[in-house]
């Protein structure tokens, strides 16, 4: 809870606020947050309906928030931020804004870059149109940079919580290790010991996260259609925050999203038994984000009632019998 602000809605584990994050962060207690996971409006050449800064002012604008995030994090806490790529105005040359932001985060604020991740969205449409579709001079831009920052060199993290499925070949090896390899030093310098054939429950994931962003029939989208509004146009898939929430936090830890949009982060945190706070300054987006927590059997009338109550500024308890939380 942020005591000085009134929530838009509450769930069993979380609170959503319709506020300016610059104001809200100033009111959050120091060292109270375990993970800030967010995806801010990107530095795009064209203005979007959800609001975005120009490339020339973007880094300074975003660093304002980062400076306020730093003291709110616990000593072993993390700040993970998803940034899409961009081109320079009028030429087929990439902007370096996301890399400059990363460097300034470390040099000016004191964050450590714990690891750089890259989110590949295979379902992304070809863009930018000018250089990819029309002139056919560039490939499709389908990878976002996802920076994992920390306050110390040793933030809380446990890769065992995000293991991936073994490949078919590895499954065969685990059944009969001696048939497929022998312990010895490889030319690369890697030492392959007899423990290589041990079943650890899954493979260690790489820092390339291949997650399609193809939400099409969720309760959130259905509820948006019921009340006749557009869904938030820049939603990320649930598996993206889920990876970092599982990797970097434990049950009952606090997860915060400072540009929460349709509040996918809060929904995932709730399903993973983490406490959460979402902050979104647009009232319509805040109100519609509550749809993430509706039971699938909620009637259209109750969906409309919920939306109207939130637009009128009423704080809604989503654990009310009308709005039982829906988990992933």
Would you write up a description of this structure?
This protein is α/β, with parallel strands linked by helices and 328 residues long. The chain has two domains: 9-158 and 205-317, Vaccinia Virus protein VP39 (Rossmann fold, 3-Layer(aba) Sandwich), CATH 3.40.50; 165-203, no CATH class. Helix content is 31%, strand content 18%. The chain contains eleven helices and twelve strands. The strands form two sheets. A ten-stranded mixed β-sheet has the order 9-5-6-4-3-10-11-2-1-12. Strands 7-8 form a two-stranded antiparallel ribbon. Helix 2 (55-72) links the parallel strand 3 (33-38) and strand 4 (73-83). The chain is globular and about 65 Å long. The two termini are 23 Å apart.
Summary, kept brief:
The chain has eleven helices and twelve strands. With 328 residues, it is α/β, with parallel strands linked by helices.
């Amino acid at each position: 809870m942020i005591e000085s602000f009134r929530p838009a809605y509450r769930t069993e584990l979380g609170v959503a606020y319709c506020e300016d994050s610059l104001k809200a962060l100033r009111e959050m207690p120091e060292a109270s947050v375990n993970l800030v996971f967010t995806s801010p409006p990107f530095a795009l050449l064209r203005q979007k309906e959800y609001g975005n800064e120009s490339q020339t002012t973007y880094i300074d604008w975003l660093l304002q928030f980062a400076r306020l995030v730093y003291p709110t994090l616990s000593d072993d806490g993390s700040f993970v931020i998803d940034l899409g790529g961009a081109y320079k105005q009028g030429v087929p040359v990439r902007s370096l804004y996301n890399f400059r932001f990363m460097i300034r985060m470390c040099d000016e604020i004191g964050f450590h870059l714990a690891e750089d991740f890259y989110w590949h969205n295979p379902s992304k449409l070809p863009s930018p149109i000018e250089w990819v579709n029309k002139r056919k001079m560039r490939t499709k831009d389908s990878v976002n940079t996802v920076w994992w920052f920390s306050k110390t060199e040793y933030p809380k993290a446990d890769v065992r919580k995000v293991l991936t499925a073994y490949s078919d070949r590895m499954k065969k090896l685990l059944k009969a290790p001696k048939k497929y390899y022998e312990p010895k030093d490889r030319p690369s310098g890697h030492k392959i010991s007899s423990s290589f054939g041990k079943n650890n429950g899954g493979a260690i994931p790489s820092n390339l996260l291949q997650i399609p962003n193809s939400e099409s029939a969720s309760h959130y989208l259905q509820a948006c259609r019921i009340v006749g509004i557009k869904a938030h146009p820049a939603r990320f898939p649930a598996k993206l925050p889920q990876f970092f929430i599982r990797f970097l936090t434990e049950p009952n830890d606090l997860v915060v999203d400072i540009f929460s949009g349709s509040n996918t982060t809060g929904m995932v945190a709730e399903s993973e038994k983490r406490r959460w706070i979402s902050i979104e300054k647009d009232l319509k987006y805040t109100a519609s984000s509550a749809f993430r927590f509706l039971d699938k059997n909620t009637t259209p009338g109750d969906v409309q009632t919920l939306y109207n109550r939130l637009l009128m500024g009423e704080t809604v308890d989503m654990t009310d019998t009308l709005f039982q939380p829906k988990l992933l």
